[in-house]
Specification:
Length: about 400
């Protein structure tokens, strides 16, 4: 494994490819959000049915990602990464070139699954070419790629879709992915899994109670965030009295904040991941409380929205860092699990916020998020005491 450093003289270039892969796959996932009305009209389905395309991607990632990671755990990570890009291109070609709704829905499950596999393999690769003390920052590069897709890729893709049609946006994603594949073939290093590492043995460590506890924390944090953010637009209209083009400014501010937070979070993960999770959960909760209490003040609302995005995504690298370190020799498989937990939190947050709105109005969704955030603070503090099992061997990605 130490040969990776000798055969990879340009780790920055490798990280750039991993960032680009995460960005492109994230764009394909989030394009549905920005063009949901165009897709619904063209495919003659309802808007909720078009929204199911996003759910299909999330479920594919949450369930298929860990399953594919388990099945490919003995393979070289280079081969896995290149294969995921190829499958992603093929699956994304379907909506780009005339697939109907059913085929599009099925393709979204596949793209979500390979996206989850890409995340896991990219995390292992990123940490393999980086010193252990910079592991959090290496993970943050991949996470920032996905965060940037929401902040930059989605609005750009939406503008393109409005100009040339929604299928045109997916065609552009395919074109960029093909270029990425060509570059990846030349740049990505070989990262073999240790011969003594078996899938079943990895699963025993990856799904240990200490790891599950951190995954629950990840879900709680994102339930808190999405309970409010999912319904931010109606909150702005009903409580803040902001509508029209001004709403875009708030959404853009949130997207930029998530990108900054995910990138900066890598440094905090390297310094003290457990403490960073407590601070992140507290920052999200305080921001939600401020949003609820001062929802009628546009400036304060803007600050609160930025705080949610900044603190929320800053927890991403620390969650990944803690899961990988606590799973020990199960790290290659465990690397896929935080993304699944986050997606579960996204789905749970949208549901919890929706129930709260049905019961007590749109402000209740924000209050619900704040309450769950408070629980997440306690969970973050409690998981800080967790340590890897004494019998666990050092994690493969930290031995370089």
């Amino acid at each position: 494994m130490t040969a990776i450093h000798r055969t990879t003289p340009r780790p920055t270039l490798v990280l750039a490819v991993l960032f680009a892969g995460a960005f492109v796959m994230g764009c394909a996932e989030m394009l549905v959000v920005g063009m949901i009305d165009l897709i619904a009209e063209d495919l003659t389905v309802s808007v909720p049915a078009a929204g199911a395309l996003l759910t299909a991607n999330a479920l594919g990632l949450a369930i298929g990602g860990p399953l594919l990671t388990f099945l490919t755990t003995r393979l070289d990570r280079r081969r896995v990464l290149l294969t995921t890009i190829v499958v992603f291109v093929v699956a994304t070609l379907l909506p780009a070139f005339g697939a109907d709704y059913s085929a599009f829905l099925a393709a979204r499950v596949f793209t979500g699954a390979v996206q989850g596999l890409f995340i896991a393999a990219a995390m292992v690769t990123a940490t393999s070419i980086s010193p252990p003390e910079r592991a959090g920052r290496a993970m943050a590069v991949v996470i920032t790629g996905f965060a940037s897709s929401s902040a930059l890729g989605m609005p750009l893709g939406t503008l393109l879709g409005q100009a040339v049609g929604w299928r045109g946006s997916f065609t552009a994603v395919v074109a960029v992915a093909v270029v990425l594949l060509v570059v990846a073939v030349r740049v990505l290093p070989s990262v073999p899994t240790p011969s003594e590492s078996h899938a079943v043995g990895q699963a025993r460590f990856a799904f240990a109670p200490r790891v599950i506890a951190v995954l629950v924390l990840a879900a709680l944090i994102f339930v808190a965030i999405l309970s409010a953010v999912t319904y931010l637009v109606p909150f702005l209209a009903a409580v803040t009295d902001v509508s029209g083009t001004a709403v875009g400014a708030y959404l853009m501010a949130y997207g930029v904040a998530t990108t900054i937070g995910s990138f900066a979070g890598g440094r905090f993960a390297d310094a003290n991941a457990s403490r960073a999770l407590v601070i992140g959960a507290a920052g999200v909760t305080v921001s939600l409380v401020v949003l609820f209490a001062f929802g009628g003040n546009p400036l304060v609302v803007a600050i609160a929205v930025v705080g949610i995005g900044l603190f929320g995504m800053a927890t991403g690298p620390s969650l990944q860092h803690r899961v990988v370190s606590l799973s020990g020799p199960g790290a290659p498989l465990a690397s896929s699990l935080p993304a699944s937990a986050v997606n579960a939190g996204i789905a749970g947050g949208a549901f919890a916020g929706g129930v709260a709105i049905d019961v007590a109005g749109v402000s209740a969704a924000v209050l619900t998020g704040a309450v769950i955030g408070a629980i997440a603070i306690v969970a973050a503090w409690a998981t800080g005491f967790l340590k890897p099992a004494a019998v666990a061997a050092p994690e493969p990605v930290a031995t370089h």
